Amino acid sequence: MTEKKFYCPTTLKKALYFLNVGDVTIIAGGTDLVKEITKKSLRPKKILDLTHIPELKGINVSGDKIRIGSMSTFSELAANKLLQERCRLLSEAALSVGSPQIRNRGTIGGNIVSRSPAADCIPPLMALDAKLHLFSLNNNRDLSLVEFLNQSTELDLEEDEIVESISFKLPKKEEKSVFIKMGRRNALAISRISMALRVIPDQEGNIRKACICLGAVGLYPIIAEEAQDMLIGLNKKSNLEPVLKALSKFIIDIIGYRKSAPYKKQAVKGIALEAWDRIWE
Amino acid sequence: MKYVGESVLKEDAWDKVAGKAQYVEDIKIEGMLWGIAVRSPYAHAIIKNIKTEELELIPGVHAVITAKDIPGENRVGPSAWKDQPVIAEDKVRFFGEAVALIAAESKEMVKESASKVIVEYEEIKVISELQDALKKDCPVVHTDGNVFLERKIAKGNFRNAKKNADLMVENIYQTQSVDHAYIEPDSCLAVPQKDGGVLVYTSTKSVHHDKEEISRVLGLEPSKVRVKAATIGGSFGGKSDIPLICMTSLLAVKTQKPVKMVYSREEVFHITSKRHSYIMKYTHVVRKDGKILGVKVDVLIDAGAYKGYTPSVLGRALIHAVGPYNVDNVSVCCRAVYTNKTSSGAMRGYGVPQLCFAYEAQMDEIAQKLKINPLQLRLINAFKPGDRTITGQRIKSDIRFKETIKKVGKIRENSENTNIQPSTEKSWIKRGWGMACCMYGNGRTGQPNPGIAKVQIEDDCSIMIYVGSPDIGQGSNTIFRQIVAEILQINIDKVNIISADTEFTEDSGTTSGTRLTFIVGNAVKIAAEDLYKKLSLFLNEYGLDLPLDNCLIDLVRKAKEKGTKLFGRGFFDPPTSPLDSKTGQGVPYGTYTFGTQYVEIEVNILTGKIKLEKFIACYDNGRVINPTLYKGQVIGGIVMGIGYAFLEDLNIWKGKITNANFDSYILPTSLDVPDIDVNVVISSDELGPFGAKGIGEPAIIPTAAAIANAVSRALKVRARCLPLNLEKVIEMTQRRDIL
Fold first, then answer.
1. What's this model's pTM, rounded to 2 decimal places?
2. Considering only alpha carbons, which residue of chain B is nearest residue A266?
3. ipTM of the prediction
4. B669 near A CB under 8 A
C-alpha cells in the first residue's frame, strides 16, 4: 500500500507551509471529499486538515464589513445573531444545508471551493457581492466570488492558496432579504433550484434597490439582472407577474437546452412568489 | 384479557436503543476472513475468460472461487423455480452479477484484491425497459423469449357486462421500481464445522429456506447446514440475498475458516431484489348508478433478469387486481417479462400497491364521470359478507370492510381542520383530498404454508417458545409471547422465545405474506393450549394448583424427577386450496385484511411540491393484539408509501442504477411525514388467534394511491404514472385533459 500523509496544523502559517510542499489535497469539513475518497474517485496522497486553525474561524464585523472565516461551519453561520438580523438570506441558506450532522461539519469555504452548482451558500454570497481572501506563503490576494466562480484560469485558486475568509458589506438595517430553496424533500435535500433575494425599500415601502441570485440553474449561481431591475419601484402590493415572466425567460435563455428547463422555468416562478411573500413578513 | 390487546414493549427494544443488539456485522470470530464478490460492470454480456492466477499468489488471499468450483448445484431461487446462478457461468444478465469470489484476511485487502481479477466480456445489447423486452428484434435475456409467464383468471363474462354498461373507463398506468431501503445491509457470517458442515449467521426472513439453498449449492447434507438469524435491521420483504448466503458458505467451507460478507450500500442497490415495476391497462364497465359490472385488467410485470419471486408475485397480482370490490365479470391477464436488471422480488405489498394505484384512480374517475361521491362509489361496490371474490371464495361473515370507509368518512367530517376548499389567497397553491382502499390475503397464495410452534417449560422455570420464522423487526416475537402468556395465564416476563434457528426450531415458513400473526400466531396459540392441557393433567396427578406463576418451581422439579419434558406443539395451516389451473377458482387465503386510507394535500403548481397535510387510516384488522405495534406498522407503511408516491425512483441507465445510494435515492424523512390518525374498526376474525389478522403489508398498499388521487383532484388532471416527483407534477399541470 502507498504511504499517505495527513497534516493537521494549528496555525495558518504552518498550513501554508505544508501546502507549499505541493500535491496536497485540502480537507475542510470533508462532507464532499470523504465521499469522493470512499468512492475512490479521488485518491489523495497528502491531506491537509484545516479544522484546528483558529485564524480561519469566526464571524466578525469591522467597520461596515463582515468577515467570515472560511472554516466557519453552516451551524455556526445559522446560529449567528448578527447574520440572523442583518443577513437573513445567508443565515437561512446555511440552515437549509443537509442535516444537522452535515451542518456541524460542512464549512462555508468548502461550499465555495467545491463549486457545486447547487451549493446553498453561494447564491446569498453572490447577492451580497462577497469577496474571497486568498492566502499563500508568499502572497495574499482578494478575488470576487463571481470572478472565482467564472473559473478563468488566471483568477482561479492556485495550488498553494487557501481561502482564508469571505467578506462583504454589512447590509443596512432597512434591508430585507430571504433565501428560498426547492428540494425534493423537506430535509437533507439537494437544491433543485434556489433563490436569494435582497431588497431595500424606501420609506414609502417602494423598492429602491434589489438583487436576485438564482442557484442550481447552470454551472454556478447567477444574478438575474433584468428581473431584479424590474423590482425597482415595486411594493408589497405590486403585481409580480412581469417579474415572474422575466425570470422564466431568463431560465430558458441560460439552460433552455437542458432536460430540466421545462421544470425550472415554472419552478422559478414558484420560489419567486414564495420569496416575495416572505420578504414582506 | 391480560396481555392480548396490550401494548407490551418489544423485548429487544432496550438493546436496540442502547446499541447492544448484535447484528451480523457485530459478530466477530478469531481468525475470521472477509469475503467479496467480483462483480460484472455490464448488465448483459458473455463471459469470455476469467483470470484469477495472479490473485492466488498474493499472501493473505485465502481463496478464489468461480462458477466451476461450486460443488453442488449453481442455481438458486426463492420459490420453486431455481434459475439464478450464485456465480455467473457463461453470461451475466444484470449489472453487478457475481463472476468470482475472494476471501482474504482483511476488509481492505479483499476489496483491493477484487480489482486484480481480470474478466474478459463481450457486451450484448442491454434491455433496460419493460417495453423494449417485447420488441421483435430485442435480444433475449435467457434462451427462450423474454415473456416467460402468462396467467389469466376470469369470472363471469366481461364482454356481456360491457354490453350492458352505461360507462366505460379505460386507462393505462405505470409504476416505477423501488428499493426496500432497509438500514442494515445484507450480511452473512459462515463458520465451518468439524463435520464438514457450516453454521451460518445472517440477516434473513427465511432461515429454513436459506438452509435448503445452501445445502443444495454446497452439495452438503441438509443436516450439516445450520442457519441462525442474527438481529435483523429491516427486511420489508427483502433479505437475505440468496447468492450472498451461498457465497459466504462456499468461501467458509473452501478456506475452513469463518468468513464474513457485508454488502456495501451500493451492492444492496445493485444486487438485491426490488419492487416490480408494472404497466397496467384497466377497463372498467359501470352502470350509471355506480355499480361496477365488469373489469378487464392487463398487467405487464418487469421481473428483472431471473424468475425469483415473480411467479408468486404474479399469482397474488391476479387475485388482487380488482381490489376490494365485488365485481361479477372479471378478466385478468398478467405477463412477466425478463429485463437486464437485478431480479424483482418480494417487497411489502407483494405486487399489490402497483395495482391499487391503478384501480383506485379508476374508481375516482368513475365517481367523477358519474357525479357520485367517491366515498359512496366505494361503498356501493365494497365487498361485504357473502360476496364472492374473483376466485369464487366467499367473503366471511366477520368482514367489516365497509365500516373502514364509513369510519374514515366520519373522522373527516368531524375534523375541524378539514380544508379541502381551494385556497383563495394564493392562486398557485391547490388543495385536494384523496382516498384509497385495499384488501390483502394473509399468507401464501393457494399453497400450504403451515405455522409450526413449540412451547416448553424449561429447567430454569421459564417458558420458551420455539418458532422458525424470524422477527424481522416488526415484533412477531412479542406478539407470540403475548399469546402464550395469555393462554398459560402467566407473567409475560417468564415467557421467552427462540426464533429463526434451524437447529432448534421447525420450519414455520418465511416472514412474508402478512402471515406471522394470523398463521404462525395460531400455531403458537395451539402449542400453548396443548401445553396447558398437558399441564392440567400433570398438576392433577401431583396435587398442584394453578395459576402457573405459583406452582412453576414445584412443577419443574416434579417433571425433572419424572424425567419428562413439559411441552406443547402447535400446527396451523389456513384452510386454503390451490387455484384451478383453468378457471382460476379456489380458496387462496384463509382470511383478508381490509383497509381505507385518506389524505389531504396541498400542491404548488409552480414548483410541483406536494405538501401532505394529514392522513387518516382505518383497517379491518380483526382483534389487535398489540396496539403500539399495530400503529407502528400502519405509520411505517404510510411513510414507505409516501416515498413510493412522490420521492423514490431507481434511475437506470443501460441496466445500471445510477442513484445507488441514499444521497441520490430520495427517501422521506420525518419532516415529510404529516399527522397520521390510525384507527381500527371493531372486528374479530373467526380463524385468527384471538380474532387477529395481519397488518404489515396492507399498511402500505393504499398510500400512494390515495396521494395520487389527492394530487389528481387538486390539479384536475389524472395521475397515471408514479412517482409524482416535482417534474411530473409540473408536466401534469401542463396537460390538457382537465377533469
1. 0.96
2. B606
3. 0.93
4. yes
